[in-house]
Amino acid sequence: MSSESLVPLSQGAGYGVVVGIGLVFGIGMVLVNRFLERYLNEKSDHTEMFMVANRSVGTGLTASAVVSSWMWATAIIWTTAQGYLYGIAAPFWYAAGVSIQIALMTVLAIHAKVKVPNGHTVLEIVRLRYGTAAHIIYIFLCFATNLLSVTAMILGAAGVITSLTGMHIVASTFLLPLGVIVYTVAGGLKATFLTDYVHTLIVMVILAFLTIKVINNSAITGLSSFYDVLVEADKTRDIPGNYKGSILSFKSKSSIIFGLVHSFGDFALVLWIRVFGRRPGYMLGGIAYFAVPWAVGTTTGLAAIALERSPIFPTYPRLMTTEEINAGYVLPYTVMAIAGKGGAWALLLVVFMCVTSTTSAELIAVSSIFSFDIYRTYINPKAQDHQVIRVSHWTVIVFGVFASAFATALHYGGIDLNWMGYFLATIICPGMFPLAFTILWKKQSAPAATIAPLLGLASGIAVWLGTAYAYSGELSILSTEAQLPCLWGALTSTFSSAIYSIPDDFDWRVFLLLSEVKDESDEDTSTNSPVKDIKDLNSVTHPYPPQELKRMNRAATLAAIFSAIIGLVTWVVWPLPLYRDYIFGKSFFMGWTAVSEIWLFFCILVAVVYPVVDGRKVLARAFTLFYQSLSGKKDLQSTSPQGETSPSPAEVKEAAVSVQNRSGVLEKSD
């Protein structure tokens, strides 16, 4: 097959999607933002809306945003490549490596919202509890985490776009973030939630189409046929560490190592910036999302094995090279084989939507670091709302350009998606336990929180490089992306930081000193600083009423129980009985694949249908007001859904003070 046939779409298609659709989303978000501002009085030029969506995102929209936020390019690109390399177990371990993090994030989210009701970023909390030195260290760690995660996404997506369109990889690398910068600047966190929904709608429909197409095409005519083709392909493969070298065995050493490295990395990649804007939909979204890497990786990864020696495969008669596999080309080649140009178009849209959705979340996270934790803390402590939001906007733009440049430098240095995927955990995990302890454990000391991440990072890098050299006798791209060195590095950097911690004592009421950001239009600007100047903690009151605090504490207990159940099910009860000398039979394989596909459609219901049902009242109100505006009726913005006049800002402020005075003091507790 000629080289031209490996590129099914034109460069114009690539530029049309990356630039055209990106700008369409950007312009669309500007229009949506104007609509929300005019009819629902939600202004993204206020920090509380830009950063935390006024802490008012609904459950359905939250569930959709969780699915979209975790819809990384690696969720479909990398898991497909690992499924091709190690067989049927690898996609499951990717899914299991994500579900436990989402479940535990629910616990952290509830504790954060109870203990730090006015928090915007975890770095604010670090500074208030541990001081300036720890704050600066965690600024660096958070920035590195966001930069590396965005870079990994851009590298993977740019590689796939290049393989589908022939578009120059540098052009795709720099143009990918363009549209997301526009709509993130225009709408902030609420914008990312809304665009996440649109992204998820498009991505989930296309993924459902592609996974079904894998099972029903000219070479594979059903699940039974799929199994027969895999059995024949299995005769030509011998995977080290798998039972009898089979792609159809769950007893796979390499798959478990992949799942562990990926799992540790994702613990640190949880987007803490959205904790303060979310509701219980996080848990529901986590359960639904499990199907995405499982179903997509299982069908497309195994289909690549089944079809690689077929004339319909793009690389035929040769097999894929190591460079192509590590760059993430397994998925696009498989889609080309089963769906031709139509499939290539569909995958191009999916990859673009995935990377832009993830990038939007990271842009908001980085903008919060620079606006709150650098500008408002060290440069202009009395910054007003409009000043903070301006810094946030410029940060989004600068970081988007810088991330693209950094990804380009790594590409020309020989770094690919596979290297980044395995390497990431070693660098971003050292702060995981200290950050979690900041919210959950009152005994962690300031020296421990400050020193432990640095020691953990140094230990992890030393073990990673040392074992890479010990196993291969050299330090190279291939040796440092090998599974075992990356696993030892991730384990060391993660758990050594917990060992380095030493105990202390902390009063949770200190977190209540954090204040919201005010604008110059507010009557009282004397407290417009990150932390209130209150020396007597006994005078601090919690903004939530006592009944609400009890409800949230009960929710935290239930979330902890749920997380334990999820961990046991996905890492013990379900997979371990399958880790034995067994090769999937036809009936079991058909059931396994069918369940993953059914789960994928359940994910569509949660991420696409439920947000509309959950937000039907808000949607009805918005469209009613929009219709009334077209009819010439006035004074719509001050009308509530029941037709009552909304209170004035002074009345709202007076009511808030009254509620605060009635709420109790947060008691000392573990």
Automatic annotation (TrEMBL):
Polar residues: compositionally biased ranges: 633-648
Compartments it resides in: Membrane
Membrane-protein topology: Multi-pass membrane protein
Transmembrane segments: 12-36, 57-78, 84-110, 136-161, 167-185, 197-215, 256-275, 287-307, 344-370, 391-413, 419-441, 448-470, 482-502, 555-574, 594-613
Family per similarity comment: Belongs to the sodium:solute symporter (SSF) (TC 2.A.21) family.
Keyword set includes RNA-binding: no
GO molecular function: urea transmembrane transporter activity
Keywords: Membrane, Transmembrane, Transmembrane helix
One cellular-component annotation, GO: plasma membrane
Region spans: Disordered: 633-652
Domain of life of the organism encoding this protein: Eukaryota
Protein name: Urea active transporter, putative
InterPro entries assigned: DUR, Na/Glc_symporter_sf, Na/solute_symporter
Main location: membrane
Organism: Talaromyces stipitatus (strain ATCC 10500 / CBS 375.48 / QM 6759 / NRRL 1006)
